[in-house]
Amino acid sequence: MSAEIHTWWPRLSVEAKHALREHPGAVIPAEVRVEIGEITGGTVEEGARLSDDEVQFIETQREQVD
């Protein structure tokens, strides 16, 4: 994906976030690709997957801060 995850992740719906968290290495579901595209103004290609860095970013968003 061309857009940086930190620009679209905060605006993603709860349902879409859950879909990506549940299957981080899987192909991004069509409805999530559409949502990311709407947020970024771009297109997420069919068959796209999160990069290792994007998966790591998502994991850091779950960690509690002291």
Structural class: mainly alpha
- The total strand number stands at 0
Q: How would you classify the quaternary structure? A: single chain
Give the overall silhouette.
globular
Mean pLDDT: 92
Computed over alpha carbons, the radius of gyration is 11 Å
What series of H and E elements makes up the topology? HHHH
Count, helices: 4
> What percentage of amino acids are in beta strands?
under 5%
Low-confidence stretches: none
Helix content, binned percent: 40-55%
Head-to-tail CA distance between termini: 32 Å
Number of domains: 1
Tell me about the biggest sheet? Answer: none
List the helices and strands and how they pair.
Elements: H1 5-8, H2 14-22, H3 30-40, H4 52-62
Describe the overall structure:
By secondary structure, the protein is mainly α. It has one domain (5-62). It is 53% helix and 0% strand. The protein is built from 4 helices and no strands. It has helices spanning 5-8, 14-22, 30-40, 52-62. The protein is globular and about 30 Å long. The model has no long low-confidence stretch (mean pLDDT 92).
